[in-house]
Target: Ammonium transporter
Amino acid sequence: MTRSLLFTLPQNLAPDQASPDWMSKGDNAWQLTAATLVGLQSIPGLLILYGGAVKKKWAVNSAFMVLYAFACVLVCWVTWGYRMSFGDKGISFWGEPNVALDGNYLITQAFSGKFPNATMIYFQFVFAAITLILIAGALLGRMNFYAWMMFVPLWLTFSYTIGAYSIWSLNGFFWKLGLIDYSGGYVIHLSSGVAGFTAAYWVGPRLTQDRERFPPNNILLMLAGAGLLWMGWTGFNGGDPYSVSTDASLAVLNTHVCTATSLLTWLALDLVFFRKPSIIGAVQGMITGLVCITPAAGVVQGWAAIIMGICSGSIPWFTMMVVHKKSELLQKVDDTMAVLHTHAVAGSLGGILSGLFAVPKLNVLFYGSAGNYIGLFYGLANNRTSHGFRQIGIQLLGILFVIGLNVVTTSLICLFVQLFVPLRMSEEDMEIGDEAAHGEEAYAIWGDDDDMPKSKAAGSVEMT
Model:
């Protein structure tokens, strides 16, 4: 006699039309949360970081470059960008442009993860947006806003989508080759660092007086933005396993350990060589730590995150403080927020260190199979030397690909844009800043003493 066991799932777990059996409510909830954390890194994180880190006369312009890019990328992303980056159809380096707005498509399962396409599109959008916003950091204080309005959709279309498809799409050339880029060390940080530096070359420098003296107008505001950037990175790296998994937890912890170590390393070097603990320097060290761990966050041990933090706090420091000052090319190009060092150098460093420290077991957790993913040190220890050297070779090849792609595409885009509008603001407008560019000022009410009402100025004099 056969006895069948029948049971009913609790109502909150039972599948229905809105929660199909392939969807994990927990994974979907975390993915939406992680995406929002990444979005907060841009709006308001980098918005107020840039707005506070520049001269007062550039606060509005710098913040508005961030706000515009965030909105513009979203519209372009759902209209054609997402399918070009992650679509089913395409060639080895580029997807086929198509809209991602159809209701039936949005509620079906994404290419990876137990959640719908709508969630994946949102998650990948905030990564695309922050990449453009990081590029803006190299161009603050002089780029013509109309040129920026053209640059954003063009660069998203002809550079970001190629990098994302090649490295992250399941059909991409470097994905199939086995490049390790856990959460964007190549696609986001190396790309934005190289593209920002290249665009800065074509746009030209700030005014001489601005390059010589460019103090932050509000360091506390800058620190608030930096804090949002750091904490938001929990979603940046913690969301990339596409599930609420042990690997996500490891990625989050490694992220913060590496970042703290990098900040302290940068601070120690500033103390040794400049005798003062620089707040701006500490923020730079924080950023390089975040960037360096990104390609490796969930595939390395905690002790490796410490080593990566020491490297990310010292090597970009050296390139910025020593190499930069001795190089004519680096001196010529006006990279306002030093994105070449904080993102391109730190991103490349993270990619190389991933090729050294990646653990086979952790690669299985993230990629689903061991394949050829193995750090060189583990290859040497496990008699898989050829696989370890192969991984380093792929990591280096990926760096060369991203550099070449962004130098070429960014240059072509800048040359195209300047056929229609100047890339750089006029000298007269740069003397004025926000008022000339937008007709608005960040601190219009409490402006310079010359602009204050006489009664207010007189009261100040009397009190002093």
